[in-house]
Automatic annotation (TrEMBL):
Localization: Cell membrane
GO cellular component terms given for this protein: plasma membrane
Domain of life: Bacteria
Protein name in the entry: O-antigen/teichoic acid export membrane protein
Organism, scientific name: Sphingobium jiangsuense
Positions of transmembrane segments: 12-33, 39-60, 81-103, 109-127, 139-161, 167-190, 211-232, 252-271, 283-304, 324-343, 355-376, 382-402, 414-435, 441-460
Keyword Transmembrane helix on entry: yes
Bilayer topology annotation: Multi-pass membrane protein
Keywords assigned by UniProt, alphabetized: Cell membrane, Membrane, Transmembrane, Transmembrane helix
Length: 482
């Protein structure tokens, strides 16, 4: 695996681990200070923000990464910034309209405010991050996440402690999103060219609009279950379900996102500079590295579900989380593999229409399965529906991506991490049996056992070609000491 991939991945990984840990601490604090019904305000507002940001803004973010390369970057960034401001105006008008419409459906107008503000905050933060990612500035990118996580933890904890209001919690978290990028704005924007370029605008719109539809449908497939749970089972059930799913995302999705933040730009550059075959080879390396991280993360969440729920959630949330974590681990693994690998095949082949088709299939499957399974199975039905809908989406994505940009599935890159993960899982189960009880020391000890066992398994199987890297690092250290 190439040294730029390792170097950038490590920067992104360590830059995301700190903020991810702070997010976990925030979840632990918020679920101890808020009742499930109050926490539902944050769950539903964040879900609405993900959906709104995907439909209105995320296609512009992806256009930054796709086109803001080399000498064209100032012109592309200037054009996309103007489009971003226009979309922000659209979002604001929708928020105002919903303030008048929601009371007719029995919902308070403050719901429109919190959802709209959270959408604008999310899209602003994501846009600034994409500019830094396109410019290959992983350090500033990571620092922005750290500042956001610290602010969200501090402001959100103060807000929920002082008021007990879920709506105040949402506004405090949104404020953290707005404030975090400000210290980095000077280096971020550089000198964009804001001159009108109709041809470039049309090119971005042609690329972005199908992608925007696909991203909105894709996020609908991921977030619709929160709204359906709230509709069918009530706000309290949504408050219980939300942090369970988000913990799965934070423990698996965030780690893999760190990898793809480094991997995908390398594939784009390989495609632009060396052609299709070079990009395919880079994506094969990316797949191997994804599996090295994805499989043990999912297995660890499933096997240590009770211990993780005990530490990371308040007493009212723990039983639900422990029951659902295994299903959440599987659905998040499938979602991650689809998002961070096969969907990128459609993006590299500029087949955003194919990506929209996959997202539509996933959205329909999510809606149908949730309405079928939740009334019969409750919250477990929502988790089962997530596994089934993500399976359908993954199969559709594999089939469609092969028509535009075929991506390999190297058997060794899948089987070796799977074998190392099996070694880790057996070690955890043995340690749980030998060390009964439930306390922080035991849980930390189990994490140590998992890490040591997986590290040994990786070296034994040479998963992700890590054995060579390990011995190279040992040899380098010996050279420094000699």
């Amino acid at each position: 695996m190439s040294s730029p991939l390792y170097r950038h991945t490590l920067i992104y990984l360590f830059g995301r681990i700190g903020p991810a840990l702070l997010n976990l601490v925030a979840t632990a604090i918020f679920t101890r200070l808020a009742a499930p019904g109050d926490y539902a305000a944050l769950v539903l507002s964040v879900a609405a923000a993900q959906l709104g940001s995907a439909g209105l803004f995320q296609w512009l973010r992806m256009s930054v990464l796709r086109y803001a390369v080399g000498d064209d970057a100032p012109r592309v960034i200037g054009t996309i910034t103007r489009l971003y401001l226009a979309q922000g105006l659209v979002c604001t008008l929708l928020m105002v309209a919903l303030c008048f419409l929601l009371p007719a459906f029995g919902l308070p107008w403050i719901v429109a405010i919190t959802c709209g503000v959270m959408t604008l905050a999310q899209s602003w933060f994501d846009f600034t991050q994409e500019l830094q990612r396109a410019a290959l500035q992983p350090v500033r990118y990571s620092l922005s996440f750290a500042v956001r996580a610290l602010l969200a933890l501090a402001l959100g904890s103060a807000g929920i402690y002082l008021t007990g209001s879920g709506f105040v919690l949402v506004l405090c978290v949104a404020l953290a999103y707005f404030l975090a990028p400000i210290p980095f704005m000077g280096a971020m924007f550089g000198r964009p060219d804001f001159s009108r370029d109709p041809e470039l605008t049309r090119r971005i719109v042609r690329y972005g609009l199908p992608l925007g539809l696909a991203l909105m449908l894709n996020n609908l497939g991921v977030t619709a279950d929160r709204f359906i749970v709230a509709y069918l089972l009530g706000a309290e059930a949504a408050g219980l379900y939300g942090p369970t799913v988000e913990l799965g995302r934070q423990s698996i999705f965030t780690l893999l996102q760190s990898v793809t933040l480094a991997c995908y730009p390398l594939a784009i550059r390989a495609l632009k500079n060396h052609g299709t075959q070079a990009a395919v080879e880079q994506m094969a390396k990316n797949f191997g590295f994804l599996m090295v991280i994805a499989l043990p993360a999912a297995a660890g969440l499933a096997v240590m579900r009770v211990e993780i729920a005990q530490i990371m959630l308040g007493p009212l949330f723990r039983d639900t989380a422990a029951q659902l974590f295994p299903l959440v681990a599987v659905s998040t693994l499938l979602l991650s593999l689809n998002t961070f690998y096969f969907i990128q095949g459609n993006q590299l082949g500029e087949n955003t229409g194919g990506q929209a088709t996959v997202a539509a299939i996933a959205a329909v499957a999510t809606l149908v399965l949730n309405f079928l399974l939740i009334p019969a199975m409750g919250l477990k039905g929502a988790a089962v529906a997530a596994v089934l809908s993500q399976s359908v989406s993954l199969v559709a994505s594999i089939i469609i991506s092969r028509r535009s940009f075929p991506l390999p599935i190297p058997p060794a890159h899948l089987l070796r991490p799977a074998a190392a993960t099996a070694i880790m899982t057996l070690a955890i189960l043995a340690a749980q049996h030998a060390w009964p009880g439930m306390n922080l020391v035991r849980t930390l000890g189990l994490f140590c056992v998992a890490g040591l066992a997986y590290g040994a398994g990786v070296l034994l199987t040479d998963a992700g070609d890590m054995r060579r890297l390990f011995f190279k690092a040992v040899k380098f250290k010996k050279g420094l000491l000699s």
